[in-house]
Amino acid sequence: MLDELKDLVDKKVFTVAETKQIMKQRTFTKKKSGASKNPENTCHRLGFRAHVGLWIEYIQLAKKEGARSLVGRITARALQLHPNVPSLYILAASHELAHLSPSTARTLLQRGIRLNSSNVEMWTEYLKMELGFIESLRRRWDVLGITREGTGVSQNVKNIVSEKDQFLDVDMDEGTTTAGTEKARDAELERLDQEGDEGTAARKQILDGVIVKAVMDSAVQALPQIELFESFNRLITIYPSSPTLRESLIEHFDALLRSTLPQHPRAIEILYTRLLTSASDSASQASSSSNPSVENLRGRALVEGVRRANEMLISIMSDTQEESVRQVYAQFALEWCQKDSRINLDENLKLYVISSLQALIHRQKSSSPSLLCAHIKLVTEAAQRGTVEPAKALDTAKRYTSRVPESASVWIARLTAMKALDENIDAVWREARRSVSPKDENFAHVWTWGISEDMVHDERLRVYEVLLNESVGDSSLQEHLLLGYVAALMSAKALNLQKLRHMQGRFLNTGKVWQKMFHLEAEENGSAIVLEELYELWRTANVVEATIAWAEWLLKNGKGKEASVLIVRSKGSVGQKEQEEMETQWVRIMGAWSRTARAHGHNFYIPATVQFHIFLLLFLLPLSLCYS
To answer: In this entry, which stretches build a coiled coil (predicted)?
Structure first.
């Protein structure tokens, strides 16, 4: 009994039975009060279960506070609620690895992969964990003085790999790995520490990456995509593994890549870059460099790397007609031979690459725009350096445009070459405009190629007018040219009513053109007469946008009455949907205007006439339309 109640009993205020009854009533009241709050608390607590970001913040906070057991409970609960969120598995596994529990981390990642087998990040983290596991074993055996000599594949390693494959292939409904499986695996690893032929062979296979290779095989089988290969490639090339292990893993990775995605452009890029970096590795080892890369290529290693990469690419080009694959070789040639390349190649080596490219084009009678453009660019630069005759470079460009006259990119390469070699381009540019296919993605670029910002205003306007006259009949091209013509007019401050009416009667103008002209003129505080004319032209294509833009300009320039009258008048000529859209935008503009006025310290006042027109706009006109 509480001391307070005992005191009341001693003073004979209450009897013992009465105090017990009081306690029962108070306990009941407290429970009832708590029960009334429980639904509210429960709803509040459960309202954030689906918020994954909040779970991650909670886990990170618990880690920061050093609450290891709490982190485990949080991650377990989060994974129950969100089994298809890979980041939660990765967080949980990293926590277990940080506390020296690789078996639990492996189980978590394997379970995550089973439920999210199409997630690249999950596979990458799993591969990274196995790489770390091999590195820890290597250090352990180094400390114990155990060597890795031996040949053949140990039965212990076969058991470990087969258990791993069996786990990754299990269906998601079959549950998680049992504790007995993990103990059996640990027992296998303990036996690897023992001396003898079996243990020696097993250690050699593990240090050569047999477990990591098994993970790679499973990943590629589950997700044969280039994104997975790119992620694995980044990991195995930068992870601090032993040189022997890295070389073995890269060899296996390249074999997988060749067999899985033999014609993928990004896969080919990985493979030819590998040949260059492998030559760079040899060069860096000879120079004791700690950061081997393509930039370290020098001398014989540079020549050998470029030769091997070039031969590999030519071999692939001979077996395919895919333009995307040919773009890879064109990119390789430009990357290594252009004047702004990362490494300044020797002139003879540049000529070797250019000759290889030319031979490939000649042998295949290629009409690939990528290869032809690359060759034109390279021979043009060679002509500028003096190693190729300018006439030969120009003849090559002319021959290639005759081979594929519909290709815009080849014409652009030829025009650029002629400009670089100080040739007259007017006739060739005119021929390009006549020849290029309208379906080419660079079609409009060919038409505007000869227009530059450094041209004088009158000359630029003259060229635009010539192009507009030539493009009559092609509405999309005319619109593209007119947008540029409008910008040139505004830059030259040459827009007036006469020019406006000339454009209206001469060219295929669209609402987009009038819209751009209106906004450019409004930004330059242009003439109200010109803006009103532009509004009338624009509204024929889009009544709502044109009316709102013109009314907003009137409002900002102290003509609120005219703006409200304009809105009321325009609403009578459009349908119900357009009326609602116009009302919404006009109310938004009025609200923004009032807030701006208050922010600048001005008292916001709407004149009575404007208020009357707004009243008509929002109330009377809709009613009249309903009864009409």
So the answer is: none
Query: What is the C-alpha separation between 461 and 495, in angstroms, rounded?
Result: 12
Q: Are 403 and 397 in contact (CB under 8 A)?
A: no
Q: pLDDT over 70 for what percent of the chain?
A: 79
Entry pTM: 0.71
205 membership: H or E segment, kind and range: helix 197-207
* Amino acid of residue 119: N
CA 347 to each of CA 302, 338, 486, 500, 584: distance values in angstroms, whole numbers, following the listed order: 13, 11, 47, 56, 67
pLDDT tens per residue, range 140-175: 888 877 765 544 444 444 554 554 554 454 333 333
Q: Give the dihedral of Cα atoms 295, 296, 298, 302; nearest 10 deg.
A: -70
The answer for residues whose C-beta is within 8 angstroms of residue 198's C-beta and 6 or more apart is 154, 155, 156
Q: CA 544, CA 528: separation in Å to the nearest integer? A: 19
Query: 323-337 vs 347-364: helix axis angle to the nearest 10?
Result: 160
What digits encode the pLDDT tens for the residues 551-567?
888 888 888 888 888 88
Q: How far is it, in rounded angstroms, from Cα 602 to Cα 608?
A: 18
Q: What is the DSSP letter of 294?
A: G
Q: What angle do CA 168, 72, 190 make, to 5 degrees?
A: 55
CB atoms within 10 A of CB 313: 26
Residues 6+ apart with CB under 8 A from 346: none
Give the containing element (helix H, strand E) for 548.
Answer: helix 543-556
The distance from CA 277 to its chain's CA centroid, rounded to whole angstroms, is 26
Q: Is 321 exposed, middle or buried (0-12, 13-18, 19+ CB in 10 A)?
A: exposed
Residue 553 is which amino acid?
Answer: W
pLDDT in tens, 308-338: 999 999 998 888 888 899 999 999 999 888 7
- Whether residue 447 contacts residue 477, with contact meaning beta carbons closer than 8 Å, is answered with yes
DSSP-derived secondary structure for 42-56: HHHHHTTTT-HHHHH
Kindly list the domain boundaries of the chain, sorted by start residue.
3-46, 474-627
